[in-house]
Write a sequence for this structure.
């Protein structure tokens, strides 16, 4: 009886236990897909078929595969823009039923409001969520992406690379724990792209969001990610996953490392087979 009475007391854990509980809490995946399939209306075959994936808090995952293999579809499922036809998506262990302010999204083509200054674009999210100083928050983020000096410019006056950086600042302005990116550097020239990849890693290092980064570029995936998830085409499934153990911070030189080249070759072999399947 006495034991039962003790158990019934509300348990207030001492601080060190709170901390260890928080750490144990990180074992709950930040994002997970459970047997997710997506079939578009009018299509016989699913675009994505029975995909299960767990992404840890703070992890940087690249979703890699040939065009048409279902990468964007999966990213839209993660973002809550598209409901799976089967299976479910969990954000911090809770079923996701629509877009969440916990996820920032960046697309290939920037989606900045052309009628707002750079600063107002970035302040938009914090303002909508009722943050106390939206412009201050925006300026901080613009600083983080090295663009504080163009805060008052119109988006249209910036280069493609700068516009994408503003897009990243905007996606991160409300400090979402998850950043979803769909080929964000796909429209940039090779040099800008390479600089942007290093820039993204430095931002990630500072803010440590959980990242899902969609790309069809093998080098980009290996350079950026902790884990590369290679997709099969028709229907979209996970072909293989690769852990990428290169130490951080990473600089572009890591691409000359024999281990990097070996991994690239291994993944390229899989992608070649998959690209052929979906080539029409
Ligand atoms: N809105 C849609 N309606 C019908 N089919 C679609 C739609 N969006 C994508 N698909 C199809 O789903 C498959 C996967 O597309 P997508 O996810 O865009 O691939 P990826 O991003 O890897 O290039 C393709 O066969 C594509 O034609
Ligand atoms: Mg796509």
């Amino acid at each position: 009886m006495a034991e039962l009475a003790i158990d019934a007391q509300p348990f207030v854990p001492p601080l060190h236990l709170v901390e260890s509980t928080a750490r144990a809490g990180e074992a709950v995946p930040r994002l997970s897909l459970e047997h997710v399939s997506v079939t578009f209306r009018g299509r016989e075959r699913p675009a994505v078929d029975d995909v299960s994936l767990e992404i840890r808090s703070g992890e940087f995952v690249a979703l890699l595969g040939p065009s048409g293999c279902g990468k964007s579809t999966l990213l839209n499922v993660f973002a809550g823009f598209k409901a799976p036809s089967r299976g479910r998506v969990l954000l911090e262990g809770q079923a996701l039923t629509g877009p969440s302010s916990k996820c920032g999204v960046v697309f290939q083509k920037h989606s900045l409001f052309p009628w707002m200054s750079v600063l107002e674009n970035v302040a938009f999210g914090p303002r909508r969520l009722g943050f106390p100083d939206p412009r201050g928050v925006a300026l901080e983020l613009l600083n983080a992406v090295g663009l504080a000096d163009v805060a008052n410019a119109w988006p249209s006056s910036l280069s493609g690379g700068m516009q994408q950086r503003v897009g990243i600042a905007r996606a991160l302005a409300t400090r979402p724990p998850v950043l979803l990116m769909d080929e964000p550097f796909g429209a940039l020239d090779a040099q800008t792209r390479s600089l942007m990849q290093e820039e993204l890693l430095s931002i990630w290092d500072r803010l440590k969001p959980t990242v899902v980064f969609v790309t069809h570029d093998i080098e980009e995936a290996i350079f950026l990610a902790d884990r590369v998830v290679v997709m099969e085409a028709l229907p979209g499934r996970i072909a293989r996953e690769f852990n990428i153990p290169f130490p951080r911070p990473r600089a572009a030189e890591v691409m000359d490392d024999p281990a990097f080249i070996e991994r690239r070759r291994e993944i390229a072999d899989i992608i070649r087979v998959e690209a052929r399947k979906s080539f029409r």
Summary: The longest strand covers residues 31-38. Strands lie at 31-38, 48-55, 60-64, 86-91, 94-95, 103-106, 178-182, 210-215, 227-232, 237-243. Confidence is low (pLDDT under 50) at residues 1-25. The longest helix spans residues 258-278.
